[in-house]
Protein: Anaerobic sulfatase maturase
Organism: Vibrio hepatarius
Amino acid sequence: MSKTSPRHSTAMPIVPMKTAFKSAQGNERRFHVMAKPGGAKCNIDCQYCFYLHKENLLHQPKQPKMDDETLDAFIKSYIESQDGEQIVFSWQGGEPTLLGLDYFRKVVELQKKYQPKGTRIENDLQTNGILLNDEWCEFLHANNFLVGLSIDGPQELHDKYRKTRSGKPTFHLVMKAVEKLQQHQVRFNALVTVNRHNVKHPLEIYRFLTRELGVTYIQLAPVVEPNDFHTTAPQFWNEQMIPEMGSELAKPGHPMSVVTDWSVDPDDWGEFLSVMFVEWVNNDLGRVLVNLFETAVAQVMGKPSQLCITAEFCGKGLAIEHNGDVYSCDHYVYPEYKLSNIHDHTLNEMAFSTRQFTFGMAKRDSLPEYCKQCPYLKYCWGECPKNRLIKTPDGEQGLNYLCSGIRRFFDDTLPMLVGLSQILQQQNTK
Ligand code: SF4
Ligand code: SF4
């Protein structure tokens, strides 16, 4: 890596900056932690999962579980680190429901124990939905959890990669979860993992979720996994193997491709976004939220990005594993990016350390010249550094694998985005 990149931060000790200590003025310092109290353990075996392999990589026990002392330390430290009125916990994995309902009852108790007056604690739970029964849904409703349900579209699209350990389909189980969530009025949104297969079907996915399931919030997450993601941390890739944009090796399907077979094709990703965007604008503007479209509209209006991936800097989304180890980001859970352990440093000390600061700044500071000259720079900012797997047409490293698709999306939609932002601005000034 020729420039400052997130990997340079790993050599630094954890030195808290001034912002790690609450200021007398009570300045709001925002960061978020994705908690994985059950480690990478899951009850299904999705082929494209970016997290299952952590069982081996991090030498996790057979049944990883954040113990009481660590859970207490995490909840206390996280609450103490948040300045705002709203404190949002996010529970993920692996599959967090494998820990059982009593585990989450304990979570809520601990949150109440440490909750300061005048604050509001909220919980998000990302799940495959398979274990959600009446009892779970009663609890989720009573405690106002927001559920992120993984669903990749209608049956044929969902079942392509989301299978049980014995290779059986899971769509019917997810549909049962939808039914239970709706019956118990649990708030939920759909997390769609866009892969090489379902990327060809944007309208089927969108119409299925919004019209058949009545989903009003959709999160789109493109699958981009380098071939060696099981063992190699981002930015530690073999530089000799990095292909140039447009090369056959910079797409899925080639035996020597830089990405896995199930990764999304970058050009298909652009087409997918453009087609879904038009469907959304024509039918559901203001009624259905799609994470990438919402932030694009906001950014065109001159507002800050709502997502780390399209922000100028990042580093405000840490991850904590079952044993209390804290990492720079959910997508950087590799030994090279471990910050410290919750029993050794507070979350504030880690989140506002010079090492984490450098990690976050590198999102902008490591951009290749091609991005700096890009007309869409202020809406994209080189997308997520973990996807900067390819070289620019003039051979510079650090270009995002999805670049051609992102450009295609903005080529197609920028006039509409500008029109939308003007309408919204006029409405706001009335
Ligand atoms: S590395 Fe990627 S996912 Fe992680 S905080 Fe930065 S932009 Fe977000
Ligand atoms: S669209 Fe491509 S060139 Fe432009 S900022 Fe994003 S990754 Fe860089």
Summary: The two ends are 50 Å apart (CA to CA). Residues 403-429 form the longest helix (27 residues). The mean pLDDT is 93. The chain is about 35% helix and 15% strand.
